[in-house]
C-alpha cells in the first residue's frame, strides 16, 4: 500500500494534530471528554493513533477546539477518512500486531535488538513456521500458516529494490544457538542470515556470550523511524497479551542511546558475519 495512504500512519498524524489543537486551546483530555460526554481513554486513544477515528469525531473535536479555518477542518476530515482504509495486512484477518505492521510498512529505518530469536524480517519460512508453532502451542495450524504468510509479506520491505527498509539488527548469540525446528533448519536459517547481511541496506551484528552483561539484557525492542519529519520515532516492545509503543522524545532517546551501546559492544559487521557462518557449519555436522 502506498505510504501516503497508510491508515496506521494517517491515524498517528491525525492524532498528533488533534493533540496539538487541544494543547493550543489549553484543555486537558479530561476536559474534552467531559464536553463530548465520552471517556477520557477514548480521547487518549484517538490522540495516540491506536483507535480508528471517524469524521464525526473530528468534527466534534474541531468544534470543541473552536477551529474556524474550514481548510484545516476539511484536511483533518480527509485524514480521518483515509485512516479508515484497510492496509494489505487486513486481508489476512485479525492480526494481533497489526498496528506494528502498519508502522513497519511506512518506516524508513528499523533498528532491532533480539536476544532470543532471529528477527521476523530475516526468517526463513521454515524457521518462522517452527518458531510460531513452538511459541503458540495451542494455535491451530491454519492460524500459524496465516501468521507465516504475513511474515513473508512483511519481508518485501527488505527484498524490494525500490526504497527498501534500512534494517539494523543486533542479535544475542542465544538467538543463533537456540535450535528452532532442527539443526538442518537452523543451518539454512543462518546461511540465509549471512546472505542477507550482505545487502547494502541490511546490517547484522552479534553480541557473543563472552561479552558478558550488556544494555540489552532487559529484552527485545525495536526503534522505527519514518521518512516524514512530522512522524515521530517509535519504540516497539512486544508483549504476550499486549504491545507497548513509546513515542515520547525522552523515551525514544533512552532506547536509542542503549542501542548505540549495543552496537558498540557487538562484533563488527565482518566479525559477526563470520561468527554466524561458523555456527552454521556446526549445525551441518
UniProtKB/TrEMBL annotation:
Q: From which domain of life does this come?
A: Bacteria
Tell me which residues make up the HTH cro/C1-type domain: 18-73
The record's section on CDD domains has: HTH_XRE (cd00093)
Q: What is the name of this protein?
A: Helix-turn-helix transcriptional regulator
The source organism is Streptomyces shaanxiensis
Amino acid at each position: 500500500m502506498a505510504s501516503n495512504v497508510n491508515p496506521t500512519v494517517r491515524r498517528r498524524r491525525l492524532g498528533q494534530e488533534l493533540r496539538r489543537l487541544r494543547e493550543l486551546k489549553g484543555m486537558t483530555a479530561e476536559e474534552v471528554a467531559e464536553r463530548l460526554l465520552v471517556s477520557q481513554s477514548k480521547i487518549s486513544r484517538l490522540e495516540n493513533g491506536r483507535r480508528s477515528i471517524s469524521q464525526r469525531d473530528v468534527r466534534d473535536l474541531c468544534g470543541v477546539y473552536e477551529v474556524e479555518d474550514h481548510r484545516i477542518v476539511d484536511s483533518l476530515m480527509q485524514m480521518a477518512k483515509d485512516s479508515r482504509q484497510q492496509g494489505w495486512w487486513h486481508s489476512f484477518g485479525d492480526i494481533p500486531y497489526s498496528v506494528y505492521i502498519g508502522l513497519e510498512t511506512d518506516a524508513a529505518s528499523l533498528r532491532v535488538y533480539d536476544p532470543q530469536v532471529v528477527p521476523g524480517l530475516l526468517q526463513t519460512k521454515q524457521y518462522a513456521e517452527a518458531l510460531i508453532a513452538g511459541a503458540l502451542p495451542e494455535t491451530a495450524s491454519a492460524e500459524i500458516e496465516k501468521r507465516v504468510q504475513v511474515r513473508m509479506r512483511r519481508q518485501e520491505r527488505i527484498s524490494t529494490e525500490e526504497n527498501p527498509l534500512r534494517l539494523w539488527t543486533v542479535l544475542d548469540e542465544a538467538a543463533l544457538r537456540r535450535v528452532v525446528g532442527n539443526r538442518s533448519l537452523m543451518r539454512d536459517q543462518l546461511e540465509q542470515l549471512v546472505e542477507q547481511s550482505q545487502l547494502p541496506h541490511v546490517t547484522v551484528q552479534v553480541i557473543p556470550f563472552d561479552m558478558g552483561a550488556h544494555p540489552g539484557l532487559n529484552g527485545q525492542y525495536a526503534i522505527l523511524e519514518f521518512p516524514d519529519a512530522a512522524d515521530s520515532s517509535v519504540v516497539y516492545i512486544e508483549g504476550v497479551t499486549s504491545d507497548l509503543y513509546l513515542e515520547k522524545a525522552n523515551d525514544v532517546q533512552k532506547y536509542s542511546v542503549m542501542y548505540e551501546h549495543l552496537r558498540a559492544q557487538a562484533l563488527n559487521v565482518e566479525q559477526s558475519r563470520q561468527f554466524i557462518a561458523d555456527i552454521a557449519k556446526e549445525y551441518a555436522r
